[in-house]
Amino acid sequence: MSIRSLQGVNAGPYPSGDTGNKDLTAEYQGIGVNLIRTHDFYGPLDMAEMYPDRTKDPSSPASYNFTNSDIRFKAILDSGAEPYFRLGDSYNNVTPPSSSELDHWIQAAVYVIRHYRTGLWNGFNSKFRYVEIGNEPNNAQFWPSPYTMMDFYRMYAGTAKALREAFPDLKIGGPGWTHAVVLMPEEQKKLKDFLDYVQETKAPLDFMSWHIYSNKVSDYTTCARYFRNILDEWGFTATESHVTEWNNDSSDKETEATEWRVNAKGAAFDTAFWMELQKNAVDIATFYRGNDTSMKLKTFYGLFMADGTPKKAADVFSLWSDFTRYSDMIDVAGADGGDSSTLYWLGGQKNDQEMAILISNPSDSETSYSLIDAGQAYFNPTPASMTVDQVSDQASRIISFGATPEHIAIPAKSVQLVKWSNIPVIGKTTGVIEKQVPRDQWVQLWVNSTNARGDKPVAEWFLYTAIIGGTGYPVYVISDKGIYELNSILSSLTSYTFTFSSTGNTLIGTLRMSDLGMSSGDTLMYGYAYQSADMSIWTDNIVVLRIQ
For the whole model, what pTM was predicted? Predict the structure, then answer.
């Protein structure tokens, strides 16, 4: 199974709510948001605002008001994220079409998507993949009386079929069922009737979307499995499962709400929830929501406060984004965390050399764990390097530190992303280093630019040469200007220096000798040279790689 992105949010990055709230474009980019659902902008991108008078001609641009909606939509595109287009209305702006308005509403929905997808009426050419029809039809806030469920089914089917005709490549679905559908038989009937109606009318259902707000990890597992199973049971085996709103279920008590919506406790549970979505075949997830609406509501749903201050949930979102680079899910069932109910785990593998495990400890107690059993199949024989990125209430932002697999402590209410590599690291130490390297083995090559004399260099060079097929090659200089044969620039050598890292170790790259065209029996040599104040030239640190 693959690790999926699941890096979506609702709303933003354009500010919502109070005047003066921050645009969060840079913040979204910084944590890896790549999908933004166009919901709860509280007016903009709502059908009630874009097409307010349902008696007007849907084919006329004069019937629409795109001004504020275009500003929000452009901000999504400018952030580099993909829009996930919700056709419907926000929490404060619900105006479903009446039976006499429905035909115009359906036509208008197609024109709205043309405006935002194919540039109609000075619109946008954005090619987003998904259009979600409706939002929580089993919630009276979004589908109020006297509208019936059959009214919604008709609206969905008519709109979906019209969109399919206009946009054959578009993925069309909905409708954002609430968690109640899983819990109550009368709510389950609404879902089953919906699926029956979709089948009877042959309406598209490329994905089905649903929502969950809960503080129980098991609820996320149950919901994800329920929606996947019922789709399969009804024959919708190719239909994707999308959770388009999810978050913890906060409290009315300020202290408890802060723990869940601002601090690391909520972030740790959010991470456990996110892992369950990964494990249970959820294809798309959009967290509710990205931005808060007021600094007076610091325990609102957002990853960021209204002034752009990140909550701990934003920090763990950043870890999730990093973790998705390890796209092949691996089994970490053997991980030893003592009380197995304390920690939640998810493992990923980038290739056969680089792995990661995401770990959440939402409990009130610090604990420790060992990765020896869980990772032994992935250690070769022990990791060449291992780092831990950690989010907790003990530090204001993400901290990173080195670790070994035998024993890692994890604080209460915290999340860790443990990353390790089996790729040998060569060249970080001083002196002459000689290594035997298999031709097709990945290696991480560094050059050490410190010296044993405590000199302050006046010029520094990176040198290399090779013996290939028994033929010795000249010594070359890699400089900031390019690569030159040493003998050709000896008279002006100080003009061909190289800028090394101020840390004393500079990464050359992660590669295989075969990538350089080298074979068994060949030799690669490189090193650091510098000129001291007395004009002497020294070559303290040299690496010799003999290819096997």
Answer: 0.83
